[in-house]
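ugh ok fine here u go
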Amino acid sequence: MAEGSEMSRSMPSETLFAAVMDEAPGAMDRLLEAWLPVVVAWCGRFGGPKVNREDAAHDVLIVVLKNWRRVESPAKFRPWLFSVVRNVTSRHRGWAWIRRWVPGEAPPDVADPYSTLRPEYSDTARWVWEVLDTLPAKQREVVVLCDLEGWTREEVAALLKISSGTVKGRLRLGREKFRRLAHTRGYSPGAAEVG
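structure:
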């Protein structure tokens, strides 16, 4: 959880997007370079284990390059970018579902997204994502943002443009469902705990 907390606190500032809006030389390169780690992490966390996070992040950056002028102000860039990530990862999750039905072997990075993790972490990561993947999308995104990335309810509410009470409710429901599904599948809270 420390990695996520660190990420939310070290988000690139709005001044980068302000420079892009002013069409400063090299500003777009600096913006994309600064946001790329965040976008890749979001794509991995919201896409789940069946989505190639680098491919999804690439698609997000293409949308950013084509549509950044639609963003009205620097303060609106982060929520807009997050909505782009949500849309792109949703589409990639759909493609992942369809690929299950297509004959042939899946590419190695999709077949086992945990192959690069140390063995003691790969099993835990696999079952956490397996359970998270079954949560409704609105609950999953709140659980991921609050519990994996360490965002406050207020930050999540601002990002998703919903009330803090709605975040609290989705988080409670998501955590309850996570625990219930984990228990049903025989996973113990000692192995990993969300919330």
